[in-house]
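Quick entry, no commentary yet.
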Amino acid sequence: MATTADFRNGLNIEFNNDLYTIVEFQHVKPGKGGAFVRTKLKSLTTGKVIENTFNAGVKITTARIERRPHQYLYKDDLGYHFMDSNTFEQVLIEEDKINAPEFLFDGQEVDVIVHDETETILGCELPSFVELTVTYTEPGIKGDTATNATKPATLETGATVQVPLFIDQDEKIRVDTRTKSYYERVK
């Protein structure tokens, strides 16, 4: 158990029969009346962000959320299969619980987010940046760099991202999995 005085960004709580993480909070002490805490909460199960106000001193239940290292194995009709790096146990995760499934490749290390008390899988997060090889892209036209021009490029995982004109086929690029966009060329 914790109180509103323990609120901090990233704290996981149980609220309205769901698990939430605190995205933002603000203690407010008006000149008249009791103090309260305004919060933005993000659901760990649906990803929906809600706003809620707690009276100061209210007791809340904290939730233990763990990030466990897993390795991506393969995809089939049932979903995506991962192996726990510590216990070698295999788990199945649905596509909607993975933050960027189009950038998964064989043997990739990911973090699986698990509710510690119920052992429920809440999601799967890829590293912030992944390095992938461009399998196909049109050649850039010389002298066409006056603007911030981009072209589509197909990656080894089958995903397509917009890249600058100087990127050629068979080059390695770094992709930001949070924005699902090109970040830089790997030297």
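second:
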Amino acid sequence: MNRERENAAVSSPAQRLAELFHRRWAVPILAELHRDRGAKFVTLAYRLSASQTAVRQTLDELIQRGFVRRNSGYGHPLRPEYLLTSRGDRLAPECTTLHDALKRRELCDIGFKKWSMPALFVIGDGARRFVDVGAALDASDRAVALTLKDLNEALLVRRAVVDSFPPSSAYSATKAGEALLPTLERLCA
């Protein structure tokens, strides 16, 4: 556990975001737990329309990372099974904000993919080349290519061909993408 904390201290903000988005359901689960001040397993799976396996694996990882805990007082039908820890309480309001923003734009499917929000965060600093995004995320070329394509189609980033030799592409955030950046910055702080 101490080694995990040491690694978190030396990781970049983009890498911390990538860790948070490692599981597709992490941010939506944190948002739901924040909204209801805890929840039952079945309620989470139902509200998120997620498989029980995916919810179980995500909850296990969130517990391991110290964002969520099991409710020791669970047993009464009205008590939630899972609660946020103090660490989760600090992160969950931003997760709720991001979840609501993506839901309004009908972009949850793209937005909660592993690399989407971390890539948008990297691009948000200014126009970035493909290799710069991949290097900042420590992601494979294929993952970066698919992510940038999805973000471009979702109108969160724009691609511009740079007139150079050899020609290259630069990616920058659109107005819709820029609207998400303050929340992403707070998530990785």
